[in-house]
Amino acid sequence: MNVSKKVPALYTLREIEGFLVANPSEIVTLILEDHVASRDGLTKLFNKTGLRMYWFPVEKMPRNGDDWPIVSDMIKNNHRLLVFTSNRSKESSEGIAYQWNYMVENQSSMDHSRGLKDVLKSCHAATGNRWANFLAVDFYKRSDGGGVFEAIDILNGRLICGLNDVSSCRVQISTMEVAMWL
């Protein structure tokens, strides 16, 4: 989709709904800079597009440092759409998670002199050895080495199987499956 051209939110959300239908094992996260002023405006929009059926309920989101559910449970329960808003009042009024109740971010000023992999490691240590669930970056095309995509592979590897990259998880899982059949 061409993001430089303005399109109604309805079309974008229908595109997301189409992706979720076509990819039943994928999870999508939306972090909305929310300026919708009409009462229940976002709720109506998500209902109209059919996305509400994929919604991860705000009451099931982890609180006070609790862990998120595992991905396979989210898929099994069809809770494959995480929606966060920048508007605090929408959590109580529309059941849309206020992003800062569930996320923290480091100051961008500490990222400029270090690579993204080093920032991930620093954040991991600073949060009591917890890996980030989300990685948000600006200017993803401007990076040294593997950049954002390498950092995501590392992060997913750590979260999924505790290894250094997600491709190692596939090898570990395949090896476990083979060992189970021997």
TrEMBL record:
Gene3D superfamilies named among the record's database cross-references: Phosphatidylinositol (PI) phosphodiesterase
InterPro entries: PI-PLC_domain, PLC-like_Pdiesterase_TIM-brl
Domain of life (superkingdom): Eukaryota
A Pfam family recorded for this sequence: PI-PLC_cat
GO molecular function, one term: phosphoric diester hydrolase activity
Biological-process GO terms, alphabetical: lipid metabolic process
PANTHER family the record matches: F21F23.12 PROTEIN, PTHR13593
Descriptive protein name: PLC-like phosphodiesterases superfamily protein
